[in-house]
Amino acid sequence: MDKPQGWTSHDVVGRMRRLAGTRKVGHAGTLDPMATGVLVVGINRATRLLTYIVGTPKTYTATIRLGQSTITDDAEGDVTASTPAGSIPADAIRAAVTGLTGEISQVPSSVSAIKVNGQRAYNRVRSGEDVVLQARPVTVHSFDITDIRRQDGGAIQDLDVTVRCSSGTYIRALARDLGAALGVGGHLTALRRTEVGPYTLDQAATLEELAQDLRVLGIDEAARALFPVRELTASEAQDLSHGRRIRHDAAGDTASSGYGLRPVAAFAPTGELIALLEQRGEEAKPALVFAPGEAAS
Predict the structure, then answer these.
(1) What residues are annotated to the active site?
(2) Fewer Cβ close by (within 10 Å): the C or N end of the chain?
(3) Residues 165 and 265 in one domain
(4) Residue 295's pLDDT is what?
């Protein structure tokens, strides 16, 4: 779905529970309340696929403001420092962006949802604690500037950017670190997620649209987009539906969409998702089994 601004991911799950008439709803990767865009939501049996979706690459469009730092590294926090940034040339900005591209070590924002001793970091910050999280490796596959604009009489510069990155990358931390590298501070003023793995804004619906028509992506189609695929014989489908192993057949697995995911999605001759398979030597072991008719629910 296309998450609206001001809603938490938990808010969306609560709303979807009411729309779908079931408690079994989850999401694949939190979006901050300020952010909008693609939030993959699973309903009923499809929640079993969410753990695999969480680790896929994400794509964002964002606006980074150079010249101001905030306590939250985004526009929702108070400004903690201001440094004129209007004189920084575009070449210097692009060079700093290049330094934040590729495999990097990133310190998440202190107001992230990461747990510290069992409590969310943002809750510790709100209670007055000074929280500094440990750096973690992330991959920024691409970090492209699409526009640069001077604002506030030239004292600040706003950058429109598109970022494709690994799961666990914080875009507001990129904004903070870009400002720090340029010596003027920076924070995020807008964020929109446009892709989660193979799922894009073109497939997304707003809450208002879903309230009128709860259209969903079928689990068969969702799995085909996400995993390598194996087409089963009728006897293999029967064995897997009862939890039995079958022979491994690497040649029968079609190429995945580039997400590096295993297991393999195994489909019956009818086109129905039967199981997710993991290789065990010469055999393929079902990691998840969907009973006949279950995958559609």
Answers:
(1) 32
(2) C
(3) no
(4) 45
